[in-house]
Amino acid sequence: MKEIYIIKDCFENCEEISNFFSGKGSGVKLIDNEDINNLESSKSTILIHQKFEEKKGGKSEILKIARNIGCTKIIVLNSNNENGYSLSKDMGGAYIKLSFKIIDEVIKEIIFQTISTEKYSFSDKKTICLVNMVEKVAKTDVTVFIHGPTGTGKEVISNLIHKKSERSEKPFIAINCAAIPENMLEAMLFGHEKGAFTGASSANKGIFRAADTGTLLLDEISEMPLSLQAKLLRVLQEKKVTPIGGQRDIDVNVRVIATTNRDMLVEVKEKKFREDLYYRLNVFPIETHNLSDRPDDILPISIALLNRHTENSILPYLNVKAQQILREYSWPGNVRELENVLQRALVLCENNIIGEKDIMIDVSKQSNFYNNIQENLSENKLMQA
C-alpha cells in the first residue's frame, strides 16, 4: 500500500484513524495544512474531512492540491452526518466521499478497504501473531505445512508466504489433491511425455516444472493416494522430477507449501499417510484457528468479503445490531459460512445498510429462513409506499 497522508485541519478523529492504519501496518502520516505545499509523493492517498474541503474552497481546490502532491486517491470524510451512511465515488474511484454518523470499527474498515489493495483484513491478536510469524517464515525457503479446520484461511496464508518471499515475482501454483482423480494426479504433478499413456497426444511438463523457481501449494495433501506419496517424497528429497514415460530426471527449484484439515499424526498412525513424507513436509508447521477463537477478526473479514462481492457497486455498512449478531455467533463453518451469510445480506439489504433482519444465519430451518425473508420484503415495500 502506498503512503497515506491525513490532513489534521478540521479533523477531530485524525489520530484515531492514523492509529488504526498504523495497526494495519500501513504507512500513514499526519500533516498540517502548512505542510501540503512542500509535499511530493506519487501514487499516495490523502484523507481529509469535509470541513477542510469546504474551507479550501471545494472539490476543485482539493483536486489541485492532490495534483501538486502527486496522489492518486482522495478520500473525503463527513462525520456526524444525520442522514446516515453513504459512499460515493467519482473520477473512476479516485475521489471518494464517505458520510456517516459516528466512526466505529466498520467505518474504519470501510476506509481501509477503499484504500488497500489487500484482499484480507484482520485485527485479532492471534492473527497478528500468526502473520508476523508468516512474514519471518517467508524470508526463508523452508517447506511449510499448514494445518487447521476447513475455512480458516490456509490458502490465504499460503499466498501471503509467497507474496512476502523472494519468489514473489515467480509462479504461485496451487493444486487440490482431493479434487483430482488418482489416475490423473501423477501426470498433473510430474508431467508426461507424448504417448506415455492412452490419450497423451502431446507432452505436458506438469505442475512441479510449471512452478519452477516459484511456490507450489499442495492443498489437502492428506487426500493424496499412498501410491503417489513415495514419488512425491523422492521429488522433495532429490529436487528432480521424472515425467511419466520419460527417461531422464529434470531439476526443479520449487518451494513447497502443504495444507490439511486432518490430524496428521493420526493419519500416520493409521497408515493413511507415509511417516517419512510427513516429516519431510513438516519442516515448519503453521496452525490456523477457528473464527470463533479470534472474534476480533469477524468484522474486518466481513468488510473485506463485502468489498469483494461489491466490486462494481457501493460497499454497504453493517449497523450496530448486525455487528452484534456477527460477533456473537459461533461460526462452525468459519469464513465460508460467514461469506454465505454476507452474500444473503447483500441480496436483502436496502440503501446500502445491512441490518439485523438482513443477517440470515440458520438456513437449516428452511421455513423460518424463508418466512424471515418474506417479512423483510414486506417491510421494505411498506417503507417504499
Describe the structure.
- By secondary structure, the protein is of the alpha/beta class.
- The protein folds into three domains: 1-118, Rossmann fold; 125-287, Rossmann fold; 294-385, Orthogonal Bundle (Helicase, Ruva Protein, domain 3), CATH 1.10.8.
- It has helices spanning 14-23, 50-56, 59-69, 105-115, 125-138, 154-163, 182-190, 206-210, 226-238, 264-269, 275-281, 298-309, 320-328, 334-348, 366-384, and strands at 4-7, 28-31, 45-49, 73-78, 86-90, 95-99, 144-147, 172-176, 215-219, 240-241, 250-251, 255-260, 284-287, 317-318, 353-354.
- The protein has a six-stranded mixed beta sheet, with helices on both faces. Strands 8-9-12-7-13 form a five-stranded parallel beta sheet.
- The two termini are 45 Å apart.
- The relative contact order is 0.10.
User: How many structural domains in the coordinates?
Assistant: 3
Physical arrangement of strands within the biggest beta sheet: 2-1-3-4-6-5
Determine the strand fraction and express it as a percent band: 15-25%
Report the average pLDDT across residues. 90
CATH superfamily annotation of the largest domain: P-loop containing nucleotide triphosphate hydrolases
* Percent helix range: 40-55%
Which consecutive residue ranges, at least 5 long each, have pLDDT under 50? none
What's the SSE pattern? EHEEHHEEEHHEHEHHEHEEEHHEHEHHEH
Give the N-to-C terminal Cα separation: 45 Å
CATH topology type of the largest domain:
Rossmann fold
Number of helices: 15
**Biggest β-sheet strands, sense, barrel:** 6 strands, mixed
In total, the number of strands is: 15
CATH class of the largest domain: Alpha Beta
Structural class: alpha/beta
| Morphology | globular
Looking at the overall shape, the CATH architecture of the largest domain is 3-Layer(aba) Sandwich
